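User: Hi! I'm working on a homework problem where we have to compare a predicted structure to a textbook description. Could you give me the structure for the chain below?
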Amino acid sequence: MRDYLISLIIAVYNPNAIFLQKAIQSVLNQSFPVLELILVNDGGNEEFRNLLPTDSRIKVFGKVHEGVALARNYAIQQSQGEYIAFLDQDDYWFPHKLEKQISMIPSDQPQCFVVSPIQIIDSVGSVVDKNNLAATSLYKNNLSIVNPFLGLCYGNYIYSSTPLIHKKVFEIVGLFDVAAQPHVDWDMYLRILYAGVPFFRYTDSALSVWRIHDSNESHKIKAMLLSKCYVEKKLLELNLVAPVR
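Assistant: Happy to help. Predicted structure tokens:
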């Protein structure tokens, strides 16, 4: 396995202390070590700094509050890694997440996009069976669609704490579109697949954990619908094949 250099990005805004500590430890304890863990404080308080362990890989930046899209964009511009991964401040990774994803990257297609399944838990850490069944079924169903771009147009089945993306990909498709908030992830993944970037999907098991709680962006129904329409309008402005259109 090549010695890949990976930058992990977490956008931070007044995080839950326990959740953030779990997220950070899950990154630092990966079986395949990260080059750096970049935290961008998106205009929140600085108390989270007291939670950080002593580790030379941790880098902290601060900026005015503008949302997760611009926080990630800033972090990407500061990053030194060959690959970029993202983790939300209240989620975490299983120990072999990066190792499993890296094993899927062929030597002749390093500039790629790798995703994997998610496990969903509630605010106290209990597995939510109904949500997991739905997420797993959606992920597996999309594996059977010949055109991955078409599958993603039906809806986003890729959770934000799962992708591993070569940094060159952002030079091809651009950075996160702030106007697509809170569908910035779906918009980005659609642009990546539309550009024809090699796409690999790990299937054996969940490698990341997504935590459901009252502050999730998905609870903001009006904002979700408006941003979904915005992303779909962007799609219709492209030169799409008939099934996708």
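For your comparison, note the following. The chain has a mean pLDDT of 94. The two ends are 40 Å apart (CA to CA). Good luck with the assignment!
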